Amino acid sequence: MGKLLGLWRKKAMMYDADSSFNKMKKREIIMKDYLVKGLAYNGQVRIIAARTVDTVGEAQHRHYTWPTASAALGRSMTFGVMLGSMLNNEDKLTIRINGGGDLGTILVDANANGKVRGYVTNPQTHFPLNSIGKLDVRRAVGTDGMVTISKNIGLQQPFVGQVPIISGELGEDFTYYLAQSEQIPSSVGVGVIVNPDNTIQAAGGFIIQALPGTAVEIIEEIEKRLDRIPTISAMVRDGLTPEEILTMVVGEGNVKILETQEVLFQCTCSKDRSTKVLVSLGSAELQDMIETDGQAETQCHFCNETYQFNKSELEAMLEQAV
Ligand SMILES: [Zn+2]
């Protein structure tokens, strides 16, 4: 794990010298992360695409993820935020993936408003590029396990869907999840490109779904197009906007955008929430913290933020605790 990082860096640096990289860098400055939702083929096909460069970049920066881990987490966060955009206002979803690989568990939370957060158990996971020169996400994730997605949609129990990991590259796994668990014929593309200094160069994806009653010819047409067009990684690398990605997938003049939404890495943790957690530990535990260290620190799994508590703050908690 991570031993061949030097070699990987050398290869990536060769790409860095490419002029297309500099061209794209200029474009990045003016473009923020966002997703677009719409319809194609006279409303028969649902289309979503997202740019998630800064969002995945924020996750990379917060968790110090190495390239293969960044790709796995970034692909999952990109899918999460797109899937989340199909929920209603207050609804939320959680994606949990564990395939038995070195990465451990990938956990992603997303809501209906473009906010997403996520982490992996072992952020410093990296492997040499695979046989086709891509980040070896399959090896990091593993193929012995499940993709589990739970949706909180205002019911007493969350809706939980689960499928076995069939690829480990994740795009195919998400496609399989939608077909099996939600019974919607779909195609999911997610891609992340990492810079030599481990920052995120590009990230994005799309979801195409055939709504009930979609004509077979349309599905066949989309499948043919998906075979012909560049891979999502290539489109992401070339800095295509979400609108451009959708145009590539469903064809010029077929895209009808209905909604545009900002996409952002955002966590729900706060010092106040951490206080409540500490209070819930009970007075004996708090008393012990006060006597042993005279202070406490909590850390959020999702965003790596730490919260410090001094002695007087702990003493105030002790009064509330049981
Ligand atoms: Zn947090």
UniProtKB/TrEMBL annotation:
GO terms for biological process: protein refolding. Disulfide bonds join C267-C269, C300-C303. Keywords: Chaperone, Cytoplasm, Disulfide bond, Redox-active center, Stress response, Zinc. It holds the Pfam family HSP33. It comes from the Bacteria. CDD domains: Hsp33. InterPro entries: Heat_shock_Hsp33 (IPR000397), Heat_shock_Hsp33_C (IPR016154), Heat_shock_Hsp33_N (IPR016153). One of its GO terms (cellular component) is cytoplasm. Under oxidizing conditions two disulfide bonds are formed involving the reactive cysteines. Under reducing conditions zinc is bound to the reactive cysteines and the protein is inactive. GO terms for molecular function: protein folding chaperone; unfolded protein binding. SUPFAM superfamilies: Hsp33 domain, HSP33 redox switch-like. Its main location: cytoplasm. It is found in: Cytoplasm. Belongs to the HSP33 family. PANTHER family: 33 KDA CHAPERONIN. Redox regulated molecular chaperone. Protects both thermally unfolding and oxidatively damaged proteins from irreversible aggregation. Plays an important role in the bacterial defense system toward oxidative stress. This is 33 kDa chaperonin.
